[in-house]
Write a structure and sequence with these properties.
The complex is a heterodimer of chains A (235) and B (220). Chain A has 235 residues and is an all-alpha fold. Chain A has one domain (15-225): DsbB-like (Bromodomain-like). Chain A is 67% helix and 3% strand. Chain A contains ten helices and two strands. In chain A, strands 1-2 form a two-stranded antiparallel ribbon. In chain A, β1 and β2 form a beta hairpin. The longest helix of chain A is centred in the last third of the chain and has 41 residues, at 189-229. The termini of chain A are far apart. Chain B has 220 residues and is of the alpha+beta class. Chain B has a five-stranded mixed sheet, with helices on both faces. In chain B, α4 crosses α5. The longest helix of chain B has 18 residues, at 2-19. At the A-B interface, loops of A face α2 and α8 of B.
Chain lengths: 235, 220
């Protein structure tokens, strides 16, 4: 389908068009790929390559992305199967909602840690507590064990490590911690993830609502059809 | 039922405010009752902390030194170091315990622990600045870690190794082991009144508010 055609459909019948979109694989795959990309970027690039250690809220945020990726994959198996799609929606909405909460909390901690205004935040936990008490930090320490300090994500280069010139340049660029634009301290990690989670959550809720509305409309149309084709029964 | 209870609590709070005698603090938001109270802690304010915790550093720089002089006279201030946090939590606890007892033997009271005379303070600040400001992680091992604190107070490694086997040090460390049960409730730093009431750090809004809450919990 052409883009102009898609926009045209969206304008003329937004509910039905969005409902059709979520019956297709593309958006589910897109969400799963985006979520996995974020986690792999955080782990393989920032944590392993650039020595920026994850904090407590950061590992919770990873779990939220994994939940969204899982939901996306399950729904993408067959998006027209309602059972798979419900599982997909539940996982993805739960993940993005928790992601928003973790990011807001991380932003508060980040603010307190980087200013003199340190009231209003909880202290630093001795160990992480994951939802449903999953011992993820024991199962996969490399991905889920917080090794950084709460509120800080500066690169910390271990003694004796020889950085390549590229690593040196990038770790210097992020020396004050991760920011979308480090020189101006613009957009910390928490602010960027809250936007990502928030947009996806909004989209999921709208898509789910359009799906339900379309289902209800179809059912109504079907009962109307049934009543009009069998007038004898009513008479 | 819950709403009813809330209304009652609210009206009590209002009465207390109007009476002007005290501020009303709520269990669950301002403080929690520890499921496992710390024994023999009547008449104390315990502060659980870790060198490996940015907010402990911030509190020890800006809050606790100003809080301790304002504490009620009959409340003893006691620092507890948490050994389960940080790569060198165990070594940190040993050194801090040795130095706290050394401070006490030198005649320092609990109120003097934030003055320049305190060896505990010197070592603690040396660790805080090394870890948080200079991003030192002592990758060379525990000996390098201990050197930072020992150099700050001018103690030799041999003296420390001898001192850490003192039964008094061992007894204090055993007491400090209870820090974990406090820390796992809401993290560190954690302030505990009479070994029973843990102040919710996120509800603290000022030093004076903290003093008021401590006074209220002390008489509970």
């Amino acid at each position: 389908m052409k883009l102009s055609e898609m926009i045209g459909n969206l304008r003329s019948d937004p509910v039905r068009t969005i409902s059709q979109w979520q019956d297709r694989r593309f958006l589910w795959v897109f969400m799963a790929v985006l979520s996995l990309f974020m986690v792999i970027l955080a782990h393989s690039v920032f944590q392993i390559w650039l020595y920026m250690r994850p904090c407590e809220q950061c590992v919770y945020i990873r779990l939220a992305f994994f939940a969204m990726a899982f939901g996306g994959i399950v729904a993408a198996i067959n998006p027209s199967n309602p059972g798979l799609k419900i599982v997909g929606y539940l996982c993805a909405i739960w993940g993005s909602f928790k992601g928003v909460l973790y990011s807001i909390k991380l932003n508060k901690i980040h603010h307190a840690a980087h200013s003199d205004d340190l009231f209003g935040v909880q202290g630093c936990s001795p160990e992480p507590t994951f939802p449903f008490h999953l011992p993820l930090d024991k199962w996969s320490p490399e991905w889920f064990k917080p090794t950084g300090d709460c509120g800080y994500d500066n690169p910390i280069i271990p003694d004796g490590v020889q950085l390549s010139s590229m690593q040196k340049a990038i770790t210097d660029f992020y020396a004050d911690g991760w920011y979308l634009w480090p020189p101006a301290h613009f957009g910390n990690m928490a602010q960027c993830t809250v936007i990502t989670f928030g947009v996806i959550l909004l989209f999921l809720v709208v898509a789910a609502a359009c799906w339900v509305v379309t289902l209800v409309r179809k059912r109504q149309a079907a009962t109307q059809d049934a009543s009009s084709t069998c007038p004898g029964r009513l008479a | 039922m819950f709403k009813f209870a809330k209304t009652i609590v609210k009206s009590f709070a209002l009465v207390a405010l109007l009476a002007g005698t005290s501020f009303a603090f709520t269990e669950g938001t301002d403080y929690v009752k520890l499921a496992k109270p710390i024994p023999n802690a009547q008449g104390t304010l315990i502060k659980v902390f870790s060198y490996d915790c940015p907010f402990c550093y911030k509190y020890d720089k800006k809050i606790t030194p100003n809080l301790v002089p304002k504490l009620p006279g009959d409340l003893k201030f006691r620092p507890f170091h948490l050994k389960t946090k940080g790569k060198y939590g165990v070594q940190g606890s040993e050194l801090f315990a040795v130095l706290l007892l050394k401070d006490q033997k030198a005649g320092l009271s609990d109120r003097d622990l934030y003055t320049e005379k305190s060896l505990l303070k010197k070592a603690k600040m040396a660790y805080y600045t090394a870890y948080h400001d200079k991003k030192e992680r002592w990758d060379a091992g525990p000996d390098a870690y201990l050197k930072t604190g020992l150099d700050a107070v001018g103690m030799t490694r041999a003296d420390f190794d001898k001192a850490k086997n003192d039964p008094q040090v061992k007894a204090l460390l055993k007491e400090w082991d209870q820090s974990y049960d406090v820390a796992k409730v809401q993290g560190v730093p954690g302030f505990v009144v009479n070994g029973k009431y843990l102040i919710m750090t996120k509800s603290i809004t000022s030093i004076d508010g903290m003093v008021k809450l401590i006074n209220e919990l002390k008489t509970k």
